[in-house]
Structure formats: structure tokens, C-alpha cells
Design brief:
The complex is a heterodimer.
Chain A lengths: L9 H10 L10 E5 L5 H14 L3 E7 L9 H10 L3 E6 L7 E8 L2 E10 L21 E5 L2 H4 L1 H14 L6 E3 L5 E7 L12 E13 L3 E11 L4 E9 L3 H7 L14 E3 L5 E3 L30 H24 L10 H7 L1
Parallel strand pairs in A: 1-2, 1-3, 6-8
Antiparallel strand pairs in A: 3-4, 4-5, 5-11, 8-9, 9-10, 9-11, 12-13
Chain B lengths: L1 H8 L12 E3 L4 E4 L5 H4 L6 H21 L3 E7 L7 E8 L21 H9 L10 E4 L4 E4 L9 H4 L19 H27 L1
Antiparallel strand pairs in B: 1-2, 3-4, 5-6
Classes of the chains: A alpha+beta, B alpha+beta.
């Protein structure tokens, strides 16, 4: 634990605040440490790996006597001092030649460690005399091998490399920034009890070509190796305790998306709202406009004029009925002159 | 070069896999769990690098197809500030990363409640509703600040006639101008509050 004093000026306070735990975390920084017994191969390998991780790196040039599997305290100190949660330590011995120890810390305490030894058929960036990847771009990852999902050691390797090189997490990504891919392949399938096969680390640059089959949208992808190229042999492993793992994988509750009633997101990310309404009153429905349908011609509200008019009609009808009745010619009526009577009317 | 591009024109952009690959597009990652032949990848095999590249290419092609079918946003933003030219940028909207990766540091702890907050919670005291800084002064017929320059709490200091208690609270107070007494009381309250604040800050750390 490093002694911290209360900051005396605003700059020191800002620097300390930057180190505080955050809800949304910064990109993990990596520290490259040279061990007591290092080789040129290790040095070059670390330079190349740091080139892939740039600009989130720090590199030590002096040798440090660290034996992480015996005493991890110096590494925890480096982690706290430099605020780096990823560390790579290069050591070489007769037993473990060209050995890189990848260490992750959680809250400045060792989270997990894995030893990856560089096999002899390595190639550095400088050995590829081609265009290389641009600094600071987010790489793509391609993991080949079913053991990456099933075997704990390879799960560790997958998690480590994803964590190490993924850079900043964004929701918007420039298409033009999809330039290089880190490919990790397990050297063949294996069964339980067999020795663990190597992990093949390759970096390729993408080349896209217009394709007639893909149409305007989908290109044909070709790869070109840009290096570095390493075959990693797996050495000793330190895995986190279940409690520590649970603690480290916790997601902040504040960032969880609250489900709001009646608002949904579809697969394209469009917002869809459901509106609940009262039953529609069909009496007020607007239909085709016609003069005859105007409200003043409504039958329900009867004004005096129309009432009179209606009454008149009724009377007329009644009169008609009477006259109609009189129209019946009976035997008694024959002596009277019917046409004259009709004229009167 | 053109003939090379011509050659690629007729190659397929789709890939068939016995087991479909899985993606974590938030991290731009693709996971292929198809079987890998050990002989193809052995270091004695001359075609080894070609084989690795071929498998990777197929997976990257699948991933690129997936990424380009995500919703796309186009923006016009100056590509390089010095030239002042604006170029359109095509951005893909990536989903949330799905791979579980450990955090760097534990979740931030909530701030410890101050002594007052603890007391208020115990007593069920709710924060007072704030109704602004100004109050209406009926005598003056205008709005004045509650405190500060010409504040309403300084009313007593400015009065030409001050009511005096029959019995002074402290011995000797009856000799002092009651106006300056009220001012001293106010200053004392401020001091006391500062002290409590300091004590709370110490408790919170």
C-alpha cells in the first residue's frame, strides 16, 4: 500500500481522482516489465506487443528481480504506482525459455497470471517488410478452437487477450478503422490428459476488394500478415479465487437499463411506444361531407318550422283520406253530381 | 494490381461452416469452435501459415459481413483539422460487449452519510423545501434577500430602536449594544456549522 497524503493543490487532486474506482472504467493500461534474466528476443517481443497496445502502455527499461509465482508483491506495487492493471513480465531461464508472464490485477491485487513461452518460430514486426497497422486503432479478434469456450486455461487466454488489446469500448465505430485483426488459434484439437497445445498468435491487416457477389455492401476480405508472430507455449497458471472473480465481474446497478412500461426497442434499435386509449366514440366519426348530412337537417332536434310542416302534411294526409273516403262511389251518391264536388275541392 | 482486384471480384463473400461461429460484436470478436486438424497446424507442415491465414480469413469475412449489416450512421466531420476539408464518416453502431471481462478496480463505494444525515434518517427529517432566496419585506414593500447584502436576517442590526430583554441571557450582556449582540450570534452559528462540517468530513473519510 502506497502512502497517500491529502493533495495540496488542484492538480494533485485531479491526478488522485483519476485513480479512484469509476463506474465506467478507463481503458486498461499495460506495463511491460523486464525481468532479471531477459533476452533480446523477449525485449523485441515486448516492444512489438507494446506497439499493438499503444498508446495505453508504460515500459520499464531497467531489469527488475520479480518472481511473480513466488512473491507477487513487487508487481502489485508496480500496478498501484503506475495505475496499470495489465502487466507483462519477461524472464528467461533454462527451464522456462523466453517466458512472458501476463498478469492482470483487480484493485491493485493480483487477479490472474499465466506464463506464455515464445516458441522458436517467432517473427517480429521488423521481419515483415510491409505496411503495418496504425497506432491506437481498435483491433478485431478471431479465436479459432473450441477449447476457447470449454477449457479453463484457454478461456483464461481468451479473456486475457480480449482484455489486453481491445482498447476503448465504443458504441460507434468507424468502418475505416477496421484495419487489423488479432488471430488466436489453438494448435489442433486435443483430448483431456494430453499436453496443452500451443496458442498461435498472428496479426493480419485487412484488405477488402469489391465483389460482384456481395454487391455494393459486402466486400471480399483478404488478409496479409503484418506481425508479430508468436507461438505461445502455456506454462504456469494462477487463476482467481471464485469470490474475487465474482467481485471483479460485478456490473454496476446504476448502468443497468431500466425497463420502462410500454416502451420497447426493436432489433434495429428503434424505439416503439404503446399508447393505451379510451374506447373510440363512433358517433363523432367524421364521414363524407354532404349538404344533406349537415347538423341543421338532423331529425333529432325538431324546430318549430319543421314541426308545423310535418303537422301540415299530416292534416293534408288526413284530408286526403277523407276525400278518398268520399271518392268511394256508393249507390246513394249516384244522384249527386260528383264532378262538381270534386271541382270545389 | 488491377488484374489482382479483378481476380477477387468473382470470389465468394459468404462462408459455410459446419458449426456456425459466434460473435461478440461489441468487442469486434468472432469465436469459431469448429474442429482444427492438428496436422494442418503442426510446425513441420510447410502449409501451416497458409492454413492459419485461411481459417482466420473465413472468420474475419463472416465478422465483416455481420458488422456491415449493423445499423450505420453517417456523419460529416472534418477528417483532418489542418486541411479544413470535411469528409463523411461511416460509423457502425456496435451492440454492448457480451464477453465477461474483469473490472480494473472494484465498484466505487457510496459516500458515507454525514452525522447530520444519520440523525435526519433516524428522526425522519426531510430536507426543507427551498423557496428561493428572496422574501417579501412588507415594511419596505419590496423583495429582499433572506441573507447576504441587505439581507432580512440583518434587520435587527439596523433598527434605530431595539427591544431589550428584561433579564439578559448572560451576565454583562445588558451593557453591550444588542445590535452587535445579534451579529455576534450569527457569526457564532457560522463557526459552529463550519466545525460540524469539518467533523463530518473527517468521519466520511
Amino acid at each position: 500500500m502506497i502512502r497517500t497524503v491529502k493533495p495540496k493543490n488542484a492538480r494533485a487532486k485531479r491526478a488522485l481522482d483519476k485513480k479512484e474506482p469509476k463506474l465506467v472504467e478507463n481503458t486498461k493500461q499495460a506495463l511491460f516489465v523486464t525481468g532479471k534474466s531477459s533476452t533480446k528476443v523477449l525485449h523485441d517481443a515486448m516492444v512489438d506487443l507494446s506497439a499493438l497496445k499503444k498508446p495505453d502502455i508504460k515500459r520499464f527499461n531497467k531489469k527488475n528481480e520479480v518472481r511473480p509465482f513466488e512473491d507477487a508483491e513487487p508487481l502489485e506495487f508496480f500496478s498501484e504506482k503506475n495505475d496499470t492493471s495489465l502487466m507483462v513480465l519477461g524472464t528467461s531461464s533454462k527451464k522456462r525459455k523466453n517466458n512472458l508472464t501476463f498478469v492482470r490485477t483487480f484493485g491493485y491485487k493480483i487477479y490472474d497470471m499465466i506464463e506464455l513461452q515464445i516458441a522458436d518460430n517467432y517473427k517480429f514486426l521488423s521481419d515483415f517488410k510491409k505496411q503495418t497497422f496504425a497506432v491506437g486503432l481498435k483491433p478485431m479478434f478471431s479465436f479459432q478452437g473450441s477449447a476457447f469456450d470449454t477449457h479453463p486455461v484457454y478461456k483464461h487466454v481468451k479473456s486475457l487477450f480480449l482484455d489486453f488489446f481491445r482498447g476503448t469500448t465504443t458504441d460507434l465505430h468507424d468502418v475505416a478503422g477496421l484495419q487489423h485483426v488479432i488471430s488466436l488459434t489453438i494448435q489442433g484439437d486435443f483430448e483431456d490428459g494430453e499436453s496443452l497445445p500451443n496458442v498461435l498468435f498472428r496479426v493480419y491487416k485487412l484488405k477488402t476488394y469489391k465483389s460482384e457477389q456481395g454487391g455494393r455492401k459486402l466486400p471480399r476480405v483478404e488478409l496479409e500478415e503484418v506481425g508479430p508472430r508468436f507461438d505461445f507455449k502455456i506454462g504456469r497458471i494462477h487463476s482467481p479465487s471464485p469470490e474475487l472473480e465474482k467481485e471483479a465481474l460485478k456490473r454496476p446497478k446504476q448502468l443497468e437499463v431500466k425497463t420502462v412500461k410500454n416502451i420497447q426497442l426493436d432489433s434495429m434499435g428503434d424505439k416503439i411506444g404503446t399508447i393505451h386509449m379510451n374506447k373510440q366514440d363512433l358517433g363523432k366519426l367524421q364521414t363524407r361531407k354532404m349538404k344533406g348530412l349537415k347538423s341543421r337537417f338532423d331529425q333529432t332536434s325538431v324546430d318549430s318550422d319543421t314541426e308545423n310542416y310535418l303537422n301540415d302534411e299530416e292534416q293534408e294526409l288526413q284530408g286526403a283520406e277523407e276525400s278518398y273516403g268520399e271518392d268511394f262511389v256508393t249507390a246513394n251518391d249516384i244522384d249527386v253530381e260528383p264532378p262538381a264536388k270534386r271541382m270545389k275541392k | 494490381m488491377s488484374s489482382f482486384a479483378e481476380e477477387k471480384k468473382n470470389l465468394p463473400v459468404t462462408v459455410e461452416k459446419p458449426i456456425p461461429v459466434t460473435y461478440d460484436l461489441g468487442n469486434l470478436a468472432v469465436f469459431d469452435s469448429n474442429t482444427l486438424d492438428r496436422n494442418d497446424l503442426d510446425s513441420s507442415n510447410a502449409q501451416r501459415e497458409e492454413n492459419i491465414k485461411k481459417i482466420s480469413r473465413d472468420n474475419v469475412q463472416l465478422m465483416i459481413n455481420q458488422i456491415l449489416s449493423l445499423p450505420i450512421k453517417s456523419t460529416t466531420e472534418s477528417a483532418n483539422g489542418t486541411s479544413g476539408q470535411s469528409a463523411s464518416m461511416t460509423l457502425v453502431q456496435l451492440p454492448e460487449p457480451t464477453s465477461e471481462l474483469p473490472r480494473e478496480k472494484p465498484l466505487p463505494k457510496p459516500k458515507a452519510p454525514s452525522k447530520w444525515e444519520q440523525f435526519a434518517a433516524k428522526k425522519g427529517i426531510k430536507p426543507k423545501e427551498r423557496s428561493g432566496k428572496m422574501v417579501y419585506d412588507e415594511d419596505a414593500g419590496q423583495w429582499v434577500p433572506k441573507w447576504g447584502f441587505n439581507g432580512a436576517n440583518k434587520k435587527l442590526d439596523k433598527q434605530w430602536l431595539v427591544e431589550v430583554d428584561d433579564e439578559p441571557k448572560k451576565a454583562g450582556d445588558d451593557l453591550i449594544d444588542p445590535r452587535s449582540l445579534s451579529r455576534a450570534e450569527r457569526k457564532k452559528l457560522i463557526k459552529k456549522n463550519e466545525l460540524q462540517h469539518k467533523r463530518n468530513m473527517k468521519g466520511a473519510n
